[in-house]
Amino acid sequence: MESNSKTIVWFRRDLRIEDNPALAAAGRNGSILPVFLWCPKEEGQFYPGRVSRWWLKQSLIHLEQSLKSLGAELVFIKAQSTLSALLECVDAVGATKVVYNHLYDPVSLVRDHNIKQKLGELGISVQSYNGDLLNEPWEVYNDDGKVFTTFDAYWEKSLRMQNEPVSHLPPWRLTQAAGSVKMCSIQELGLENELEKSSNALLGKGWAPGWSNADKALTEFVENNLLAYSKDRLTVGGNSTSLLSPYLHFGEISVRKVFNSVRLKQILWTKEGNSVGDESANLYLRAIGLREYSRYICFNFPFTHERSLLNNLKFFPWNADQAHFKAWRQGRTGYPLVDAGMRELWATGWVHNKIRVIVSSFFVKFLLLPWQWGMKYFWDTLLDADLESDIIGWQYISGSLPDGHELERLDNPEVQGFNYDPEGEYVRHWLPELARMPAEWIHHPWDAPLTVLKAAGVELGMNYPSPIIDVDVARDRLTQAIFIMREKEAAVNAADANGTVEVVFDNSENVGDSANPKDVVKGKVPCPSSSSYDQRVPSMGNVCMNKKRSKPEEKRKKLKDIGLNCKNEGKISNMDGDLCSTAESSSMKKQMTTSRNSFSVPRAISMSYDRKTFGDEASSDEKLQKE
Asked: Where is the Photolyase/cryptochrome alpha/beta domain (predicted)?
């Protein structure tokens, strides 16, 4: 590269100086213009929630200060079009190159390739890098060159591929590219409005965003908390996990650094014969692997933010009950552990990974609500909201993955309460109306004697709700719904000449109208990659879809013998049954869009107006785990 070259460094979710391949490459020679572009219009239905935007703002302030200390000024631009804003930056400084690190969500995949193509047509060099993963999604395939659709097989192959640790040293000095760019202040980006500031101020007491703070959090976890991770992670309430997930989401710390730090500790413990430490490190590395896998699935199956990976839920009769949805959001289901988790989420933007599993399982299995509604609510409220991780978590719980929970599995929140909050301390903290309930009854107050309820000041149905649905009734309704789903699936298969049609979508478009705009993304054929580092696009030719494990015949017969009906059967989708992608497949060479039935949640999810009442095993946790 010529020493007088000028490069645009486009920051997105890679808000760090250390181990940032795009920044390192651009800073080696010539001058740079570091930019952060905020284009709310392009975020669509996945516009970040309040707490996520707060974190982003604080992280950008931190990054701005760090870049300034190195001699470069981070340029903030609020734009209507990312492509137009980048072109204006290129023209303003006379840049000849644009660099950035990869993203893997479906919207970013299409946008990034469109931008790379347009800039290439104008003679502007574009280079993209892996700043987010241990292995790129297009690097990990099975022996037949097919995509993995089970985590264990994927992770085993990924671990075998790990080479020597790679890290990009931070630049010692940066040179700012000369030129006049139309920019704004970070306040003018609009990441935080006046009404949100009072609530956001509380977040700063418990969290410290920024890449250097991420390094401190990693050191604290590895040196002081990793050893007991295998035990502590099963206790809800308190900081029993690493708390690194928001830092990882915004790229404030490299996943390579996290992986290598834990791996080195594991090697040391293994040599010492410390089996507890070895197990803890292995479990945490597995959590890192699940984050990798979420990107892998979303890259190879870019429709998974709106449709199930497997075809089984295409026929599932979702119960689009707005009242149940609201009760779940507000923590008013009558199941204390579920309610405590949802109120903690609303108050803090954070919940333990075990609680995420419990509340999402209750949402899908007890209430039969569409998993996409729950996923979108998590996106709107979690401090570490991460589309890819939430997609795989919710699909796992709803039985949409080949290695996910069985759809028939229904976990009792009462039993889970005694398992993970045996003394009821977590419930008492978030449900003050149950603060005086004895531990014996706190997870099932509906069974408590009247004298106990009276002494605790609890009036079921008054100051704390009765259960929204009985466990036995919920189990019967789930069985009914599965029976209907399988009957319809069998009828469709029988109608097919070969009985082998694999449809990879569900009937979520039938669960009710939505006032939210549909997120339709158009893709174009990408220009050829100019480097092995360049990001690729999904190719449906290498997808090997595993069908859901078959139901034993005796269980099928049991379901059929029940012969029950379900009120909300819904219509069977008439969408195409092919493995369409929201991103352009290099093998298909044609324009594609997302489904015209793209899923959106109801308008009622807007929390600014409807929140009026407030001011398993280890493998089950992992899919929703936030580390």
From this structure: 5-134
- Kindly write down the DSSP assignment for every residue of 97-166, as one continuous string: EEEEE---SHHHHHHHHHHHHHHHHTT-EEEEE--S-SS-GGG---TTSPPP-SHHHHHHHHHHH--S--
DSSP lists the bridge partners of residue 100 as: 10, 128
Across all residues in the chain, what is the average pLDDT? 82
- Flag whether 385 is marked binding: yes
Residue 384 assigned as binding residue: yes
Tokens of 306: 């709106």
Q: Whole-angstrom Cα distance, residue 588 to residue 331?
A: 46
Q: Give the C-alpha separation, 252 to 246, whole Å.
A: 8
Q: Is 241 labelled as part of a ligand binding site?
A: yes
Residues 6 or more apart from 540 whose CB is under 8 A from it?
578, 579, 581, 585, 587, 588
Residue 101, strand partner residues: 129
227 has binding-site annotation: no
User: Is 100 assigned a ligand-binding role in the annotation?
Assistant: no
Distance CA 38, CA 79 (A): 6
Provide the CA 345 distance to its chain's centre, in angstroms. Answer: 15
What is the chain's alpha carbon radius of gyration, rounded to the nearest angstrom? 25
**Cα distances (angstroms) measured from residue 244 to each of 207, 239, 534, 558, 578:** 11, 11, 28, 45, 38
pLDDT at position 613 over 90:
no
pLDDT surpasses 70 at 240: yes
Q: Is 180 annotated as a binding residue?
A: no
154 is an annotated ligand-binding site residue: no
- 386 annotated binding-site participant: yes
131 pLDDT more than 60: yes
CB 452 within 8 A of CB 441: yes
What mean pLDDT is predicted for residues 543-552?
46
Give the integer Cα–Cα distance in Å for 191 and 420: 37
pTM: predicted TM-score of the whole model, two decimal places: 0.82
Residue with tokens 């059929």: 560
242 is in an annotated binding site: yes
- Residue 464 annotated as part of some ligand binding site: no
